[in-house]
Recover the amino acids of this structure.
């Protein structure tokens, strides 16, 4: 822990050369994992990590340092080293901190440290057994629980001391099938900020394990995805990775503030998507994987309207990038841990419900691809060029969902694809992911209702769709 | 941490075989934007990872806290986790290799140069980039240096240390013209400032980025394809993951049973050479086993799989010195991959391709490529090759195929090898045919 008096001295040293803002981010994390491979416990580990990230801002310049040496001497030296970047008179002096405890959004009925390891192993083993015994062509099954408890204390030059706590847990289930030189990997990874009750009462791990194994075998024998331009129906939930990559990242102040995005401030109020598209980022939703109690600068999250009926409405903004844009922060500042400087990131990002139904959308599609689940993707925010890859997809023929196809990669330009969405259903749901960018990997939700893109380039190895 | 206290405590608790991996690193990052320093980041970090054998099983713990409680935490976590482990694989603490090669990979000059000089170099690089072409609208220059130290100690008396540092300049640019936006980026790295030609970097990035204007999507079909060095590097690295003996033993490698068989074109020869005298030099792996130069693929024939102590014991062979610590497990990975260059210049490759596609960038390898099966379908960009010359730029195309089929279809290896920051040396490669998706 960092005492108040040490925090005060560190911040005053940091501000001694004229910085207009300084912040200490202290973190103490304990994480553990237990992993079952082919029904046997294969790995178990507990690790602890603590450290401090110290940031000084002065106008459009940021200096940052981090260390795991929490001694007074080390922290004062870090503050002094960082402050050497500036040479003005001290403007701000800290005397006291007003303490604020972030309201914890997630109710935890059964904390993980009260669950015997044997019980966790029992649940994981059962998942691994279900996968392994599903079919003789399953060569590997894995079930892993990853859990972390993170205590965070932020002290800043506004005289605030913000205390926060995050619990994250995720079970990964992996099935690997092999036959005749072909190998197929299927994956499921339900994540939660709730306690152990989530895995034992709220979701059905055994069903998830069975579905994962079943998908693995189904797609092991599926034919290759077609290639070329075609209509694509993106399923609700994980289909939202399209919006996450193609528009979410380019709408972060990290890209917008420097002109490194295909979207600009000047485009606010103009049409960037078809009328059926409204999109939000909302870190304040209760019990969602991407939700936050406060952001990593200590600000409250709220619902940000990004696109309203096709019109660009706003961005996700952090304190520092907001300065260059002349925008106020939006509670969007996030980082993986103390070793990363925080920056604007997504939380729970989604396209809102429309008026169609899944049935109507499938029926309206003569020949195309129904993309149900995805392994992820990436984007170049500057050009808007994005890609993402399906882990479960089917061909739609004459308004019916038909044969499964392997590994389709969908590519396009974010600013173009938004105009190309012509039908949006009313079945919005979320999928849990880990998003990687300059401030590390953070938990995010992607979300959307089922929707159709009229025309998008699919790259598969199966040739033209007939 | 006082390692003697740890080893004594472990012994007193009945952990006779154990080891410690202690890592320390320091880094400096400077980013310059619009003529000013935008970010300046200094960091120091350390971590301690301990493993111990209890009842024939490995217990593992790690922390970045280094205080009087650390030995107790590590020992108690080793005891707690070891008893959970059920897998029957051999757990081994290594007694040490007879000899370890030496080569200096640390250059004090990098640390000694004052930060203001590094800032000045970054600012000059930004200025140079902007001056080269009026269509360049945004430039971001990043300087990064890092020094890393890794020590391994074990209860059998092994005591090893390696230390290295490097510095890197990275440039990202955005160019705009006629409503088209193009971006590009490249880097140079070394552990000596004098090795870096920043003017050349600036010229290369700008030239490549502005050459992307007026791009099209080509017709979807198969083409002879030239892979630029870093594209070939990414694809070959992914294919090499199938050389892990762990994957073979678990039946998840498509190369299982293919030892001494032809798996690639006879034009392909690949070495793993951790002892090559460059900044990637490493005399020992993460279990303390001395490394050596090995031929992985010789003229297309698979010569060996890579081992750590555990998988080697299972196959009754010796470790190849490829242990790589990853989380709570001891994984396996190649060290420094050297792909033997061919005789063709890049111009020769273009002539041999005649009409085809030159792929300069691929995106989405994390999800669009399955290293286990080798199947891939990824976003790509590059140029059409027309009559043996580079022609119209291509963007938003897809490149798809299977890695192993691709390696069998190698038509020619270039003589233009480059070393990537990920630790691999390879030339441009001409593939007979690959599927390219566009219109």
């Amino acid at each position: 822990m960092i005492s108040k008096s040490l925090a005060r001295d560190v911040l005053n040293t940091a501000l001694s050369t004229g910085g207009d803002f300084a912040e200490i981010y202290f973190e103490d994390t304990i994480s553990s994992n237990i992993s079952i491979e082919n029904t046997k416990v294969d790995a178990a580990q507990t690790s602890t990590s603590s450290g401090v990230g110290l940031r000084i801002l002065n106008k459009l310049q940021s200096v940052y340092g981090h260390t795991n040496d929490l001694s007074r001497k080390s922290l004062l030296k870090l503050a002094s080293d960082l402050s050497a970047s500036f040479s003005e008179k001290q403007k701000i002096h800290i005397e006291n901190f007003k303490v604020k405890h972030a309201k914890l959004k997630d109710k935890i009925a059964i904390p993980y440290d009260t669950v015997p390891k044997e019980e966790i192993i029992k649940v994981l083993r059962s998942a691994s057994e279900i996968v392994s015994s599903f079919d003789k062509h399953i060569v590997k099954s894995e079930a892993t629980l990853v859990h972390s408890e993170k205590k965070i204390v932020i002290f800043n030059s506004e005289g605030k001391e913000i205390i926060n706590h995050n619990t994250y847990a995720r079970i990964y289930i992996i099935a690997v099938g092999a036959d005749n030189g072909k190998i197929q990997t299927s994956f499921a990874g339900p994540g939660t900020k709730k306690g152990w009750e989530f895995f034992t009462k709220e979701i059905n791990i055994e069903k998830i394990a069975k579905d994962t194994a079943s998908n693995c075998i189904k797609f092991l024998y599926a034919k290759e995805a077609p290639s070329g331009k075609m209509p694509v129906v993106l399923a609700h939930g994980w289909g939202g990775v399209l919006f996450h990559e193609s528009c979410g990242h380019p709408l972060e102040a990290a890209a917008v503030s420097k002109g490194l995005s295909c979207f600009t401030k000047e485009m606010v109020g103009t049409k960037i998507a078809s009328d059926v598209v409204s999109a939000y980022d909302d870190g304040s939703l209760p019990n969602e994987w991407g939700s936050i109690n406060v952001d990593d600068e200590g600000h409250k999250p709220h619902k940000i309207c990004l696109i309203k009926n096709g019109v660009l409405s706003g961005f996700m903004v952090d304190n520092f990038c907001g300065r260059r844009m002349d925008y106020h922060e939006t509670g969007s500042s996030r980082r993986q841990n103390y070793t990363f400087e925080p920056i604007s990131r997504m939380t729970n990002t989604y396209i809102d419900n429309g008026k169609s139904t899944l049935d109507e959308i499938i029926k309206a599609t003569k020949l195309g691809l129904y993309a149900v689940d995805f392994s992820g993707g990436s984007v170049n925010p500057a050009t808007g060029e994005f890609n993402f890859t399906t882990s479960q997809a089917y061909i739609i023929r004459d308004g019916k969902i038909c044969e499964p196809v392997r590994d389709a990669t969908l590519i396009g330009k974010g600013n173009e694809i938004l105009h190309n969405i012509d039908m949006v259903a009313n079945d919005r749901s979320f999928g849990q992911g880990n998003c990687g960018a300059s401030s590390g990997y953070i938990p995010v939700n992607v979300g959307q209702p089922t929707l159709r893109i009229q025309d998008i380039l699919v790259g598969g190895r199966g040739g033209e769709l007939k | 941490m006082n390692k003697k206290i740890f080893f004594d405590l472990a012994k007193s608790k009945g952990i006779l075989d154990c080891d410690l991996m202690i890592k320390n690193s320091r880094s400096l990052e400077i980013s310059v934007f619009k003529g000013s320093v935008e970010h300046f980041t200094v960091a120091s970090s350390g971590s301690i990872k301990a493993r111990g054998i209890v009842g024939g099983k490995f217990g593992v713990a790690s922390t970045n806290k280094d205080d009087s409680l650390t030995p107790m935490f590590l020992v108690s976590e080793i005891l707690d986790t070891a008893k959970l482990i059920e897998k029957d694989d051999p757990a081994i603490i290594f007694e040490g290799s007879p000899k370890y090669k030496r080569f200096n990979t640390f250059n004090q000059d990098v640390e000694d140069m004052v930060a203001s000089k590094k800032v000045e170099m970054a600012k000059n690089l930004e200025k140079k980039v902007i001056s080269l072409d009026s269509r360049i609208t945004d430039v971001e220059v990043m300087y990064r240096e890092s020094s890393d130290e890794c020590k391994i100690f074990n209860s059998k008396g092994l005591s090893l240390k390696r230390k290295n540092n490097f510095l890197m300049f990275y440039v990202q640019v955005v160019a705009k013209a006629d409503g088209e936006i193009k971006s590009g980026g490249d880097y140079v790295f070394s552990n000596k400032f004098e090795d870096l030609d920043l003017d050349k970097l600036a010229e290369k990035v700008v030239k490549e980025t502005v050459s992307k204007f007026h791009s099209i999507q080509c017709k979807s079909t198969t083409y002879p394809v030239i892979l630029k060095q870093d594209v070939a590097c990414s694809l070959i690295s992914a294919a090499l993951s199938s050389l892990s003996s762990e994957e073979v033993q678990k039946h998840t490698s498509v190369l299982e049973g293919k030892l001494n068989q032809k798996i690639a074109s006879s034009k392909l020869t690949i070495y793993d050479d951790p002892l090559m005298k460059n900044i990637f030099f490493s005399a020992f792996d993460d279990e303390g086993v001395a490394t050596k130069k090995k031929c992985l693929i010789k003229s297309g024939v698979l010569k060996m799989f890579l081992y750590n102590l555990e998988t080697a014991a299972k196959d009754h062979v010796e470790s190849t010195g490829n242990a790589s610590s990853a989380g709570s497990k001891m994984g396996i990975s190649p060290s420094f991959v050297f792909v033997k260059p061919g005789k063709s210049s890049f111009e020769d490759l273009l002539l041999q391709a005649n009409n085809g596609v030159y792929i300069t960038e691929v995106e989405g390898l994390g999800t669009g490529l399955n290293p286990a099966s080798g199947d891939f379908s990824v976003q790509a960009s590059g140029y059409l090759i027309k009559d043996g010359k580079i022609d119209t730029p291509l963007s938003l195309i897809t490149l798809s195929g299977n890695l192993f089929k691709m390696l069998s279809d190698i038509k020619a290896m270039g003589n233009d090898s480059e070393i990537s920051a990920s630790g691999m040396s390879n030339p441009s490669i001409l593939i007979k045919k690959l599927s390219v998706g566009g219109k």
The two ends of chain A are 64 Å apart (CA to CA). Chain A has a mean pLDDT of 95. Chain A has ten helices and 24 strands. Chain A touches chain B through 78 residues (CB under 8 Å).
